[in-house]
Amino acid sequence: MNKYLKSVHKGLKSPSALLIARLVAILVIVCQLGCSSTKVKEYAEETPVLSLQEYFNGEIDAYGIFQNRSGKVVKRFHVLMNASWKGDVGTLDETFTYSDNSTSRRVWILQRTGKNTFTGTAGDVVGQAYGEVAGNTFYWNYVLDLEVDGSHYHVKFDDWMYLMDKKIMLNKSKMSKWGFDLGEVTLTFIKR
What we know:
Layout: H1 2-11, H2 15-35, H3 52-55, E1 58-68, E2 73-86, E3 89-98, E4 103-112, E5 117-121, E6 125-134, E7 137-148, E8 151-163, E9 168-177, E10 180-191
Antiparallel strand pairs: 1-2, 1-10, 2-3, 3-4, 4-5, 5-6, 6-7, 7-8, 8-9, 9-10
């Protein structure tokens, strides 16, 4: 084994081999950091207990910001959500108004698939979203078809929602593509 390590080390003396080795090491570190994530079940004992059917029912205002990966706020927005449920199927009709006065709309259709699990679809979501509730927390992940200046990008969202009381919920979303951080969305939901 020692002989093998010496030959590898000898091969790394060339500048191109050293560069490749460093790039591989950086890639391994980035992948390890991306794989270490909190599990929603860790919040199972937190209160108040979140019921999506109860909280996402009626009119809800949300105020949010989008920060790029350096932390700069590049967009502010308000969301008016009209939410309702019929059995295990929920509809969240969201109207976004941005600080530049542009608007957009997303309509989520949520389906309860188990005691604490949900799937969801929307017009700009690629495939299905998957979510789970535990305690006061809802973890939700999906791929969004994001349009920027006429081009479309498939961006992964990891959403964490935390119920603070019966009217207020905080939401933090991380956006990424190919494992690289693109930015964060922070929202405060206020139930009317």
